[in-house]
Amino acid sequence: MTVRVLVADDQELVRTGLRMILDAQPGIEVVGEAVDGAEAVRLARSLRPDVCLFDIRMPVLDGIEATRALAGPDVEQPIPVVVITTFDLDEYVYAALRAGARGFLLKDAGAELLAQAVHAAARGDALIAPNITVRLLETFAGSTPAVPAPAPAEPLTDREQQVLAAVARGLSNAEIAAELYISLSTVKTHVGSLMAKLGARNRVEMAIWALETRRPS
């Protein structure tokens, strides 16, 4: 099944490069391009792509607000958004996470990781580049004390805390299974349990909870 992607970036050279990279990947097709966030929202609502790939810093409407409009907590039929950025401002990336983005990559991530992020978002998963996660953790670990996140509905088990820490580092289910020496189905069970206990809709919200509570990663 082909994943239909909408690309939004105010730089024509970047859009062209992303289209060429994505169209060359098996099972991915770019169905539209937007030069700013407002146009991206309009096109996304009319084309209903499977995944949107947004830059953060765009004119008219930035990538954070465009993400919130399409994937925010109040959106009835959200469209998965992956943010691809030069990572100039760490707080922008964190804000986009809060706005509902499903994935984060740097613009030099490479074709393979870009394709993985698009496919992950399309199937309801999330991929956050590990270097971005590390930057976020380092930035907010040195900031003022975090506001306490809501307590989980039930206490987390030791294994669930290990899985949560791995999710917050951007690891996939397969990578978590290999790292913790457990089966893939067991990882999926733990992830589902964590989502229920934390009231998280996806892995990104799980990572945010881990970040806000400063759990070791």
Written description of the protein model:
This protein has 217 residues and is an alpha/beta fold. It folds into two domains: 3-140, Rossmann fold (3-Layer(aba) Sandwich), CATH 3.40.50.2300; 158-212, Orthogonal Bundle (Arc Repressor Mutant, subunit A), CATH 1.10.10. Helices cover 51% and strands 13% of the residues. The protein is built from ten helices and six strands. The chain has helices spanning 12-23, 37-47, 63-71, 90-99, 111-122, 130-141, 158-168, 173-180, 184-198, 203-212; strands at residues 3-8, 28-34, 51-54, 81-85, 103-106, 127-128. It has a six-stranded parallel β-sheet, with helices on both faces. Strand 1, helix 1 (12-23) and strand 2 form a beta-alpha-beta unit. Helix 3 runs parallel beside helix 4. The longest helix has 15 residues, at 184-198. The mean pLDDT is 85. This is DNA-binding NarL/FixJ family response regulator. Residues 4-122 form the Response regulatory domain. Residues 149-214 form the HTH luxR-type domain. GO terms for molecular function: DNA binding. The modification 4-aspartylphosphate is found at residue 55.
